[in-house]
Structure formats: structure tokens, C-alpha cells
Amino acid sequence: MRPDRLRLLAALALASFLILPLLPLAIWSFAHGWRFPDLLPQVWSLKAWSYALGPRSGVLQSLGVTTGIALATTILAALVGIPAGRALGQYRFRGKGLVTLLLLAPAFLPGIAVVFGLHGIFLRLGLVGTVPGVILAHLIPVLPYMVLVMAAVFSRLDPDFEAQARCLGATAWQTFRNVTLPAILPGLMTAALFAFLVSWSQYLLTLAIGGGRVQTLPLLLFGFSSAGRNDITGAIALLYILPGLLVILLTARQITGRGAALAIGLRP
Amino acid sequence: MTALVLDQLRKSYAVAGQAALHGLSLAVESGSLTALLGPSGSGKTTTMKLIAGLIAPDSGDIRLGDRSIRDLPPERRGVAMVFQNPLLFPHLTVAGNVGFGLRMRGLASDRIAASVAEMLERVRLTDLAQRKPAQLSGGQAQRAALARALILRPEVLLLDEPLSSLDPGLRDEMRQLIRALQRETGITTIVVTHDQTEAVALADRIALLLDGRLAQYDSPQAFYGRPATMAVARFFGGVNFIPGTARAGIFDGALGTLTLPPGLPEGPGVLTIRPEALRFGEGPNPRAAQIVALSFLGSLTRVDLDLMGVPLQALVTPDTARTLGPGTEVQVSLPPEALWLLPPDA
Fold it and tell me: Residue B314: beta bridge partners?
């Protein structure tokens, strides 16, 4: 009985820690005004939701932009991260430590420190205010996750498997497609998940490089929040956390299982 | 007919720890089973990787039939290789692994299934076709790896130490399977091994690599009876070496004059006799010998002898060993047909 009750308590504590902060947002999104001494709103309403999901708020369009940017960033990060991860995980070369450090740097450095310099460069390249510019900027914080996870994955992959495939008549591409990819897929999924969520939650870089013309969800959310529209903010906030929650639920097994173990370089 | 020709292959590595090749030439006969034998660091694995196309030679050529395969990528060489470790792809079943190469060639799936079924039958893995590699024993995995390469009917099949990862009990079974499949299919096969007895038991011909060069390419019997150099003789367990000079069918050295078999070269050289060829009792080339020590080795007994101050070794059966005692004087014979002349050591 006792371990069961302990487990229940732990689950409750965890749930309240994760879910309770979201509760006021949820309530706000269905409230028609919610004044101080009231425990719950007096009048309920779907007004905030119908506005948020309506054409005038720009939420749906922004949802599309945010998803598109996050997907593109993830795919580009994977295209760079797979070969880079292989180089770091399997090859020995001069300056490897320095390369690793440089790759890691964006994860340590505060974004605000680099964003102004970046803005100047992107302005000259005509990338400010464009979606490609925002995607490129998002790659800065996303790449370290991708490359480090893939480096851990590749360091555990025996390169002889690929040599074996070549010696059985598989071309380089067939080998990647049929041998390497299945082997790295769990780790790649984990890395892609992180990459997607890191891009999804970017605020500062999108604001600076997007120049207000690329309206992702966090920007929109911040706008409504500053305007004091708690009901609409609540609705958008719930929409905003939905994909992350969905992805995590769908890949929970991946994250808690072999993929995650690979990602942090532990034996599964 | 020669199938595979290695012509003056050279390969050196910038990083130490990889064995270099110093101009290796070898012509492997079509349809033969050749053992590429050598101690560790002799360049066997380097040679294997060069043939497979996993590394490129610094100079020299590799030809298959009349075409050079030197600059072809591994998948276009007509060469299949089985690594020492079975390396079955973990996400595929046994059947999926065996059919891998045919799938890469783009064959129709019903033809692949038929070939896979037949191949699995041959290596006795039919019942395990749907298993994942993790569920196989070492011997089963090795057989699946062999089937996966053989199904491609390659022009040359390379096997890297196919028995070394197996338990001793399974080795003989695997050796017989390799032998039988090779005879059945007639595929030119090269087996890399560091184990001299394995090479002898398995191969039609042995290519002995010493120090990045071909020391001798011959039948297994020749390595015992007619080794090319002292290094070759030593690798095959030769221990008795007597320097001297051969002239007109007579060898003159530390053991006095000995009658040689016909056909041996003249001039200075080193006389050798296999320890198991030394006879006890009366016979040609008789000598009196002192028994220094007897060492029980299991099925045979090693006898250390002193012949006129020259230390020699003999290997005898238990029956003979019972008649011998340490410190006693015996009569031995060095039969001329067991004598062989080596060039003087450089």
C-alpha cells in the first residue's frame, strides 16, 4: 500500500506543479470578466475563444507561420546536425574541442548579447523582416541541441555496420537510408523534438530579426498580454502550449526510453 | 584461371597501429578457397579492406578477371565481405538481413523471398527466419552473416576471421559449413585468419603474409614440407635448423654429412627437418643422440635431443615416448625425404 500512496502523492505533486499554473489561463479564456475577490468568474463566455480563432485576431495565420518556421528550422538543423554529429561522434580531428565549444556557445550565451550584432548583419543581407531570416536566426539556439544529440548517437554507432552494407552492394545513399537512418532514428526524433520546441518558443530572435513583420505566436501572445486582454491571452496561451504537449505525449515513450538514453549518452 | 590479382599493392598509414603493405602481389585461382594467413600486424586486414574497397592503396592494382577494380566503390566490385563480428542489422529480421543485398539490387520481392528461403535452408536457419539478430546465438548470427553474403553470388567472397568469435565447440561445425558451401557454390573465397591450424584445415591454398609481404602462396602441405624461408618454417612450427653447405646430394654441416633427397639446390643453406619427421631407431642418415628432456603435450610428446652438440626437437606418439627416458642415449634417423633446404637467413 505504502509505495502506491507515495507514488500517487508524487504524481499529484508533479501534476499540480505542471498543470496548476495553466489553470488560471484556462479559466480566463472562458471568463466574461473576473474580478479580484471572486474565486471564479461570475459569468462564463466563449467570446475570447471565438475571437482568438476568428479571422480578425490573426491567431490561426500566426499558428501556421510559427509551425512552418519551427518545421523548417528543425529540418535544416537535422540536415546540418546529422553530418556534424557524425564528425564529432565518430571522427578524430584537430581542433575538435574548439569546434564543440563553438557549437555549444549559443546554448550558454544570452540571446540578447548577440541579437544586435546579428541584426546588423542580417540587415545588410536583406534578411531582416523575412521568414528565411527568422529561420536562420532560430538555427543559432537550435543547432547545439541537434548537433550534440546526434554526436552522442553517432558515437554509439559502430561504423562497421555501414562498411558491411557497402560490402553487400549498397550504395552510399542506400546505406544511409537502410542502415544508418534506422539506427539513428530514435535519437534523431528526440533531437528534432527539442529543435522544434526551441524554435517554437523563440521570442527575442523572432522579434529582432522578424522586425515585426514575422508574427509568430509568442509575439502575438505578448501583444495581447501587454494590452491587458487576459481572456484572449489565456486562449492563445493554451493554443500555444498545445503542440508541445501533444508532441511530448505522442513521443513520451521515445523520450523516456531508448531515445532519451541515447540523447544523453547513457546506456539504454 | 586466376580470379583475383593483387599487383604490387602498397599501403602505408600516417597513424601507427595499422599494418602497412610493402608491395604485395598475389594471384588467387578462380573457385579456390584461399586462407590469408599471418600474425597480427602482418597486413591481413589491410589486404582484405583493399580488396573490398573500404580503403584505397597508395600504389599497385587490384584486378578481378581482366578488369581493374581498384577505383570502383565497394558496392560495384562484385566482392562481398563478412566481417569478424557478424554485424547483422539490428532493425531487420534474419530473413530481412539475408535478403538485404538483393533488395539493394532492386530485385522483385517474390524472387528475394525465394532466394532467402533457399539460403536459410542451406545454413539451417529456416526456423529462425523471423527472429531479430539480438535473439540469435553467436553461431547462428555467424551463419546468418555468411548467408547474407553468399546469397549475392559474389565473384569473390571475403571472410574475416569467421571462426574467431565462436566457441571452440562451434568452430569445427562452422568450418565444415564454410567448406561445404564453398565447394557447392564454387565462389572464389578468401578467409583471413591468424591461426595456422585453421588455415590448414580450411583452405586449398594458403597465402602467408609476413611483415606486409607475401612470404609464400602454396598448398597447406607445402608449408610443412617445403617452406620458402626460415620465417615461414618457424611460423608453421619449424624448430630444427642446421646451417651448412649442400653439394652433389650431400649436406655438410654441424651434424657431419647427410644424404639429401634429389632436386635440392646447391650451395650454402640451412637444413631443416620437421620435428614429427625425425625417426627413432635404425634408418638412413643415422646419428647417436642424447635425450635432454621429454615434455608431455597431450596427443604428442616433445623430445628435446642433443645431436653432436646440436639441439634438435622431435614430436613422437605416446607409444614411442614410453620407450624413451631422459638422459639416455638413443639412435635417431634423419630420413632424406624429410630433409629440406632453406636459403641462408638474411
Answer: B303
